[in-house]
Amino acid sequence: MIKLTRLNGDVIVVNANLIQFVEQRPDTYVTLTTEDRFIVKESAEEVVKRTMAYQRALRLLSVAG
Fold first, then answer.
1. Which among 50, 63, 49, 65 is positioned nearest to 12, based on CA atoms?
2. CATH of 2-64, one of 3.90.1570, 2.60.40, 2.40.50, 1.10.238
3. Looking at the record's lineage, which domain of life comes first (predicted)?
């Protein structure tokens, strides 16, 4: 799960495994595999960075466990 911030300042927690697309135009749109879409304050690059960190953490947990 990753934390993102909606344009109104609300923090949301998103299942990073469900992210299908991240688009910068100039706002950042996140589209999930469920076809839900929302706009966040973070850049597309930051969303990708957080998603990659989440995936790395999962792999480390599976190796350690």
1. 50
2. 2.40.50
3. Bacteria
pLDDT given at position 65: 60
Cα 10 to Cα 3, 18, 43, 62, 64: the distances in Å are 10, 20, 16, 31, 34
- pLDDT tens-place string over residues 10-55: 999 999 999 999 999 999 999 999 999 999 999 999 999 999 999 9
